[in-house]
Amino acid sequence: MGTLWQDLKFGLRMLAKSPSLTAVAVLTLALGIGANTAIFSVVNAVLLRPLPYKDAQRLMLVWETFRGRRAGVTAPDFKDWSEQQGVFEQIAGSTSMNFNLTGTNDPVRLSGARVSASYFPALGVQPVLGHMFNAEQDQPGAARVALLSHGLWQERFGSDPGVLGRTIILDDQQYTVIGVMPAELRLWAASPQVWVPLALTPRELAATGSHRYRVLGRLKPGITREQAEARMKSIAEGIVPKRPHSNTGISVMLLPLQEQVVGDVRGSLLILLGAVGLVLLIACANVANLLLARALVREREIAVRAALGAGRVRLLRQLLTESVLLAFVGGALGLFLARWGADALVATLPDSIPRLARTGIDTTVLGFTLVIAVATGIVFGLAPALQASRVDLNNSLKEGSRGTGASAGQHRLRSALVVSEVALAVVLLIGASLLIKSFVQLQAVQPGFRPEGLVSMRLALPQDRYAEPAQVVAFYRQALERVRATPGGEEVALTSHLPLDDSGFNLAIFIEGRPALPPGEVQMTYLRIVSPEYFRVLGAPLRAGRGLDENDREGSVRVGLINQTMVRQYWPNESPLGKRFTMDDNEKTPVEIVGVIGDVKHFGLDSEPRPELFVPFAQAAPMHWNWIDRSLNVVVRAHTERSGLISAVRQALWSVDRNLPIYRVTTLEQVIAESVVSQRVYMRLLGLFAGLAGLLAAVGIYGVMSYAVTQHTHDIGVRLALGARPGDVLGWVLRRGLRLTLLGVVLGLGAGLALTRVLRTLLFEVSVTDPATFAGVAILLTGVAALACWVPARRAARVDPMVALRYE
Amino acid sequence: MIRLQNLEKFFEVGAGKSYVLRRINLDVREGEFITFMGPSGAGKSTLLSILGMLDGAWAGEYFLYDHVVHKLSVKERNGLHKQYVGFVFQSYHLIDNLTVYENLDIPLSYRNVPRAERQSTVADVLDRFNIVGKKDLYPSQLSGGQQQLVAVARAVIANPKLILADEPTGNLHSSQGKEIMELFRKLNNEGTTIIQVTHSEQNAAYSNRVIKLFDGWIVPE
Q: Is the Cβ–Cβ distance between A83 and A215 less than 8 Å?
């Protein structure tokens, strides 16, 4: 222990003795370790930390599957499962339900959920105030009660403990607050703010086609996921004879809740972690090169130590202690950078990433930093230490000797480090370039409408005051008129689902004149409820037939427009105009197709359009209004200043009903930007890391070439004295540097071919082996390397032979 | 104490060999003070390095007490070196970033001597060499003579049986050199075997045997 302390003390002195080398090394390491720690702090918060529930590994989401695709569960299936399962301690159902909260300042829209009484016991979560729902409250007709999220309690009720027993108005109904849930329950930015009992009604329990419920189960101790899944599958099979029409082909799958929560982002975050890992390796190679250069300066000291009796292991320990110390200092600074970087990441990354807000430096992150600092110290310190400890005592201690100079082995090692740096930088640059190209392609995708100047806001009508479709239609008609009367609001329209914002729901259609499909076969379309002028305002082209108009109203023939994809899928060889179909919406009257609209991107710029049906809001069925909570987006094309217009439209809407929250105020350009936010963020981050990698590699090449020039100043002087032209010397240095670069580039291209496959799912219309990208990166990095070699090459070419020879 | 038989050192040059030392036969008795002399390139320092086991690339036979050095592995030779040998160099080779105290402590630390024992040994040596007042200074704060004094102190601190000194006064002015040579004599009188390399007849006079080398050969007396 005492000798280790000696090593540490000496290591600190060595760092202090070469402040510039220490500063460069520490900064390089701080960048590498800091970037890794920052990304890891996100990975830790999002992927690694257990969910904030008791024995979270036993929590499973139970999904229905149809043709291998996951779907929500129907209420009758949930009821049957609850009665027959024997594998879960608790099984709970929930469905999202948003509310208008009124009576407290301005009306606001709350995200919420209906949950069964077993929901919170299944999660193993207790309220911080009050109590949870009981079985009596989870019955239709029971007194209305609500649980508040911690955030809502803080923001709207000032964390008042007296909120318990208070009445709040949700969708014009009075609910009694019975509890406040803990803050940890908030996993997403869009997590529920309020919960009410599920209280399934007889009507809901009869709806066999409504796959809108999520089912959560807590496995009994000792029951495995597989056993539970087998049991639930057998229950699902048992239900088929009871409800063959709706349940044929329906199976069940279990997904751990943790998997469900983080599954979508795991790949992207791990790619980022891999990318910063490569940056750290490059940083290590750079610092290793610095230490190799310093090892030559310290050659005599090492030799003296060996002559005084230090064995190789002891020398290695001394040198590694120094490098680990360096890494610790870099790690400490890196930790500071990581705190800042983690905050920046949280602000940058899409807020759809679960638990992102919980990102921070905790003991796990500190442990990670400690481990990578030690590992980094060993990685970059080992090679120079091995080299240095292999000192030739006889030569190093000889009088008059200036040291043995860099051996062939040391040259090879330094060259190998630079080649590796270049190769790693090439891999990262290829990855980043592929993402950039993909993003450019994505941006070039035509969304099928003109987003410029379009602003949108959403409102939802409470069921109590707007129970009848006629009331809903009357409200929206009046709203349209008021907005139209507003200066600048002339081009206004309504839609239930904004493009690229809300994919909405799909339902089965039954085309007239066609034979019934076999069980398990179904034709589906996504339903949109719009006002007649929607397509004109949106700028979506009519491809065939006619658009909707004011005559398409209550009582007239039910009409609809369909998109081109629906035509291709269901009427591939005929005109769909005049064709009729019914829908799975309790309406017996068929819808007649009167026109075809060009495809509008609804599911993402990188996703193919799916069949869509647009029906006039005046003809929307009662069930349709229920499905969309009687909510529509008011879309206005602004030709003037937007904020003034938004304010005017808001006032116009409130002039119809002052108790309605107006929310999701946005522009369509913003909606498009948000739809590609993940791609943009990952592209930027990978681009940042690749840029850093390229820079570090260039610095590495510069360092090695600069060192080579210093080492060969005498040779260069001799060459110049013998008649070599400065151009020859310049060429000699450049060739040497470019040889290393090209070797690194070739290796990097090979590694890129193998490694960029992990990006496949993130790319849009770009091959992972895109030749132009590979070639571009090779040229770019070679160019940068040439620049990095140019400076020492010029210095070499300017060597004064007399000075160089006299110096030697 | 030491016996060398037909010891040779050479480098392969093309198809042939370039000899540094040739057929060296030498016996050193315990307590001797020997001087190697000869012109530059004669092989004196190389022979000293081989004796100190800093150089392992040679042919022939080398016996140190009962140890058959030429048959030992590098690790075993390092062990012998630690056990028996102390080195003094012309350029002192003190470690710049260690204080006088630490420079003296380091050979003991490499021999895994417990801390308390190291402290008392270093204190003894500081006292013996009369450099207590310098213990917290760095080498750059000492004169050449003081540095060599510390270097000698460092060489003897682990109580070696053999001190090898390569031009120990080469960088010192005469009075400082004399002081160091007196110190060697004292150590020798106390029983330490000393082998030095020097060009100085004056220094050679301190030894009781002078061995001359020329072109790698020992010149017969």
A: no
CB atoms closer than 10 angstroms to residue A81: 23
> What is the Cα–Cα distance from B124 to B120, expressed in whole angstroms?
6
From A17, A393, A399, residue closest to B91, measured CB to CB = A399
Distance CA A533, CA A614 (A): 12
Residue B112: its pLDDT value, please? 83
The answer to which of A714-723, B28-37, B110-119 has the lowest mean pLDDT is A714-723
Chain A residues within 8 Å of chain B (Cβ atoms): 2-3, 6, 10, 13-14, 17, 300-301, 304-311, 314, 393-394, 397-399
**A359 CB neighbour count, 10 Å cutoff:** 23
pLDDT tens string A402-436 = 444 556 777 788 888 889 989 998 998 998 899 88
Closest among A103, A425, A123, A83 to A278, alpha carbons compared: A425
- pLDDT, residue A399, reads 56
Q: Which of A389-398, A576-585, B30-39 has the highest mean pLDDT?
A: B30-39
Q: CA-CA distance, A23 to A2, in Å (whole number)? A: 28
Chosen for mutation from A297, A308, A399 (greatest number of chain B CBs closer than 10 Å) is: A308
Q: Cβ B95–A14 below 8 Å, yes or no?
A: no
Instruction: Check residue A148 and give its pLDDT.
Output: 95
Q: Of residues B119 and A763, which shows the higher confidence score? A: B119
A504: left (phi over 0), alpha (psi -120 to 50) or beta: left
What is the pLDDT of chain A when averaged over all its residues?
A: 87
Is the Cβ–Cβ distance between B156 and B192 less than 8 Å? yes
Rounded Cα–Cα distance for residues A376 and A369 (Å): 10
As a whole number of Å, the end-to-end CA separation of chain B is: 21
> Which H or E run includes A468?
none
The answer to whether A393 contacts B54, with C-beta atoms less than 8 Å apart, is yes
* Nearest CB partner across the interface for B110, out of A10, A17, A309: A309
Q: Which residues of B touch A399 (CB under 8 A)?
A: 45, 89-91, 166-167, 170
Secondary structure in 3-state letters for B60-117: EEEEECCEEHHHCCHHHHHHHHHHHEEEECCCCCCCCCCCHHHHHHHHHHHCCCCHHH
| Beta strand segments in A546-590, E | 559-563, 580-583
Which pLDDT value is given to residue A779?
94
**Which amino acid would we find at residue A798?**
R
Q: Per-residue pLDDT tens for A224-240?
A: 999 999 999 999 999 88
CA distance B154 to chain A (A): 9
The better pLDDT of the pair A720, A237 is held by A237
Which residue type does A101 have?
L
> Which tokens hold the place of A131?
């109590």
Nearest CA in chain B to A1: B115
- Decide if A307 and B167 are in contact by the 8 Å CB cutoff: no
Q: Are A526 and A504 in contact (CB under 8 A)?
A: yes
Question: What does residue A291 show for φ and ψ, rounded to 5 degrees?
Answer: -70, -35
Sign of CA dihedral B14, B20, B25, B31: negative
Please name the amino acid found at residue B77: R
pLDDT at position A168 over 70: yes
Residues from chain B contacting residue A310 (CB–CB below 8 Å): 106, 110
CA dist B180 and B177 (Å) reads 5
Measured CA to CA, the distance from residue A250 to residue A423 in angstroms comes to 50
- Per-residue burial over B24-54, b if 16 or more Cβ lie within 10 Å, else e, is bebebeeebbbbbbbeeebbbbbbbbbbbbb
Taking the alpha carbons at both ends of chain A, their separation in whole angstroms is 44
Is residue A573 helix, strand or coil?
coil
Q: Is the pLDDT of residue A530 over 80?
A: yes
Cα–Cα distance, B29 to B31 (Å, whole number): 6
